[in-house]
Design brief:
alpha/beta, homodimer, six-stranded mixed beta sheet, 17 helices, five-stranded parallel beta sheet, 25% strand
Chain lengths: 587, 587
């Protein structure tokens, strides 16, 4: 470790000096020619990965003076492997305290990630900065906590305007709301459901998180050590209700935004909202979409569909299947919900056939967990703080994701060879994605086409769930489906596990002009399925400024949202207090 | 630190050998003649402090063979001060893993505290032992988490009997319920309120915790870093509701136990419970009272009381005092609620006079916090885990409490000299308790007669709240009160902040025979006010076996309950799985 500190220290001193002298050539000389600098709002007020010296030069030429980075220090040296020295650094800019993750090879920087951690003078009111609560000084006319809060809640959106409105009170909206509350940004979360948890409660019974509890912590309130490793949907629902209460968030439930107009002159939104039948206008400066991005059930049109005499529905509408003993079910789709629902139907006594058109990325849960092992606080031995694990996870440039995952994927292929052979024998098609990166390279871009196995693959292998693969359903008859290979399967129940279309909520609220202006949402432009090019390097329009002032999108799995909710909240706070800033690369 | 380890190691090796050879003389020789051994259910299946060699001999003669302690190890050496070497140890018994805190002076043990940590084979299902949640193996007929839970809750107390019933769903009942849940002890909590939080919501508006957040953590779910230092009553109420949900406890609200019978032959209780008007019989083996012990508002009989023409009520019934501009209020009592209520009335515009019959222990909040500094996770620098701080706090024998506190109290007297002088000038009577130990020696025995100042003292000092001290109210007239010194004060409102009587709830449920059999509850028998002798050394009948089989009492502030809830839960679990045990010292 001492060697790492020495190597890193030496590089950092040179880097610091070069930055200090605004000597960009010297900075570039400290990077590999193809080195990466991923910046998360520390230099660019944007998320931007500069790939190679030319891009880094362009970024620094634009941002270095205004950023004025200083006070670089090694916060933690990390394990060295394959000649790569890694360390976590801290530094400051004119306005912020920041973190960095550095990877050095042969004395030069291979990857650098810089990220804003907190705004000076606008720190979160947590820990040693927490509010006092009970007064240490009484004042006449003071209200106690509850009357103060009740009044504030009654006024917010009515006689006072929130600075920020978040649409969606699920885990995305709540996590961002909690961050903004700690930064004293007046925020109102609105959602059409009656409780923050209802979106989860209404889903199919077998649904549970497919990521382990220690990866899923929300900001400020980690799941307790009593929490199950993979929580069921209703436990998550209970948690979200409790989270909203404990974080004391301002939420309008039963409220729907039905239209918007951005007032350029005033720099604020006019949102048309109905709340329990009554119309309101909200006028926030900032508007965040924090609903699920894949929000519109997508059901294919199939010939004869309307003549089917059994039950048929999209998996989004599957609630309970208590009594389907002997029922012949056809599940169209072989992604996560296709697997979950097939197992749920089988458990309820149905005969199930899964229709799989194209290969699915399948990885066994126990095999994939080592891929997020840095987050595992249940493991014996010293733990990495979750905050540090988040930094490390974010430090890998998107371009290198598949490369970083490759050895891991290769190890899984070898370890689970028998499992994959069994899947193959059962007629199931699997692959590891277009780039061979498996789930980690795919899952964050497109939540379809993969399954982290928590048991359904075993049912497929054992033949308890039948699979017809490489085919699609061409037609539906009264009591059967006709496959593209000409086969016919009897059917009493058809479940469309055929995924979701993206961002229907956006078009319910925003004008077409704005939707066109901001362009594609999500994906890094890898060119693979569901992620059209050109290469963007960063998730498009998520957690970072869009081309529409005052418009933000917040989305991702629990772990991503924990980390990026802070970066988004800081960007909003910086606007709230009108810090001078120029966004780099918002072309 | 190395010296400490060496000194402790040497002593521990000798101690271990002596115990191993069952050589009690040799063990005694390792203690100071007046040394203390406090055992919390590790050796005695009781809480017992053996004071001096004779008492230690008696304890070991009875318990050593059955306990068979072994595997002693130093877990953490602590700071040495004044020649006292301190360390935390671990060891095992036949059935349990245990912790110990040791203090050595001149090579001999001054104080030893031994405490059970977990039962072998019955470990809590937390962390690496947490339940999996999502199945890794599907089974036909399996229920998802919610249907399983719903069914279990619907059956508990109806078609299945809980092993343990806890009366009281406040912080005491919930913390114990959470512990028992992790030990898989079927438990039902009952409370007459509609929500676990209602007991808190119904209290006076100015109420907040007078202990800092980092001392107040409940089991498994620490308060988040966003939580205020001293939470208001409604925040605590919100928290308790969320806690009950997150810990997924079985609770009957709107349920009252109106009588009981202990069936000696069956070794179980017959509890008569009404729940929402319907009668039920519950038959648990174990019954825990976890309500507030000081549960019956105590209002003095005063001549003329019934002729008073203003409003008068006990502070327990004070809800809001929104509109008392110019109202002349008399607050009878100068403890915590007397201070809180006086400030609340003053804030609401009332003229307030506090009637103080006898001196109050007053300590400024900021001055007293260093006394629980070992719990302070907000402080800069390395933190002691809360679990370790709990052990250290419990390691001080009750007999030595005032002695341990003396330097701290002396420092406060010196530091806050001007404050106390100002209080004196304002006519307020203060002292540091009969034993001079101040709050820490008193507060845990008797929750009256003290005030941890969060601001009311300043109002008294400034004369904004008037005090009449050394007097009581002799009589009440239509619009005034008559003091024992003959003075008369005009009055529109009288608040009785005159405390509570103990354990009314017990007598509503238990027979007089059982109440007599168990004897005094709480207090260590110090002989000071509210804690009649003889000396018991441990809190009587709390967290430990009573003379009534299957009857337990659980109470204390948040910090005490965090620690002792585990010890109580372990004792109940040991009975649940019928471990062989003999309780020592249950005379």
């Amino acid at each position: 470790m001492n060697l790492t500190v020495r190597v890193v220290d030496e590089w950092m001193a040179a880097f610091d000096a070069a930055l200090d002298h605004r000597d960009i050539d010297q900075v570039l000389d400290l990077f590999e020619p193809e080195g990466f600098w991923r910046d998360l709002a520390a230099f660019t007020w944007n998320f931007h990965t500069a790939e190679g010296r030319v891009a880094i030069r362009a970024m620094l030429a634009d941002c270095l003076d205004a950023t004025a980075p200083n006070s670089w220090a090694v916060s933690q040296a990390l394990e060295t492997s394959n000649g790569v020295y890694q360390a976590v650094l801290t530094f400051e800019t004119k306005v912020a305290r920041c973190s960095a993750v550095l990877r050095l090879r042969d004395g030069r920087c291979w990857t650098l990630m810089t990220a804003m951690s907190e705004l000076k003078g606008f720190e979160e009111t947590v820990g040693a900065r927490r509010p006092n609560g009970a007064p240490l000084r009484y004042e006449q006319g003071r209200r106690n906590w509850k009357s103060g809060r009740d009044r504030e809640k009654a006024q917010l959106g009515i006689s006072t305007q929130p600075y920020c409105v978040i649409i969606g009170a699920g885990q995305a909206g709540l996590s961002l709301g909690a961050r903004l509350k700690q930064l004293n940004v007046p925020t109102l979360i609105i959602d059409k459901v009656d409780r923050p948890s209802d979106t989860w409660r209404q889903r199919y019974a077998a649904l549970s998180l497919h990521s382990p509890v220690w990866y899923d912590h929300m900001p400020y309130l980690p799941f307790p050590e009593t929490w199950p490793r993979f929580a069921s949907k209703d436990q998550i629902a209970d948690w979200l209700d409790a989270y909203a209460t404990i974080m004391d968030l301002g939420i309008w439930t039963g409220a729907q935004c039905i239209g918007s107009h951005y007032d350029e002159a005033a720099g604020e939104w006019r949102l048309s909202v109905t709340r329990e039948g009554r119309p309101f206008e909200l006028r926030p400066k900032q508007l965040v979409f924090a609903g699920g991005f894949w929000d519109a059930p997508s059901t294919p049109q199939i010939k004869g569909q309307d003549r089917f005499q059994g039950r048929q529905f999209h998996v989004a509408n599957l609630k309970d299947v208590d009594s389907c003993n002997g029922l012949r079910s056809i599940v169209i789709g072989a992604g996560t919900s296709g697997h979950d629902v097939s197992a749920q139907l089988w458990e309820a006594g149905s005969e199930v056939t899964m229709i799989q058109r194209s290969p699915t990325i399948v990885m066994r849960m126990d095999s994939i967990l080592p891929g997020v092992e840095i987050f595992n606080t249940d493991a014996p031995g010293p733990k990495l703080p979750t905050e540090l694990a988040d930094l490390l996870a974010a430090s890998i440039p998107n371009r290198l994701m598949a490369q970083f995952q490759a050895p891991f994927v290769a190890a899984i292929k070898a370890k689970d060879e028998a499992f994959y052979e069994d899947l193959h024998k059962a007629g199931f098609l699997y692959d590891f994605g277009d780039d061979g990166g498996g789930f980690f390279a795919r899952g964050t871009q497109d939540p379809s086409g993969f399954y982290l196995d928590v048991g359904t693959s075993e049912l497929i292998i054992d033949g308890r769930i039948a699979v017809r693969s490489g085919v699609s359903v061409d037609a539906i008859r009264e009591r059967s489906v006709i496959l593209s290979d000409g086969g016919e399967l009897p059917a009493d129940l058809i479940v469309y596990a055929t995924g979701y279309r993206k961002l229907a909520a956006l078009s319910n609220v925003l004008s077409d002009d704005i939707i066109c202006k901001i362009g594609p949402v999500g994906g890094v432009g890898s060119g693979i399925r569901g992620d059209q090019g050109p290469w963007a390097g960063e998730n498009r329009n998520i957690w970072k400024p869009t081309k529409q002032p005052g418009l933000w999108l917040h989305n991702g799995n629990f772990g991503l949202m924990r980390f990026f909710s802070r970066l988004l909240a800081l960007q909003i706070k910086a606007r709230h207090v009108e810090l001078p800033m120029r966004v780099y690369g918002l072309s």
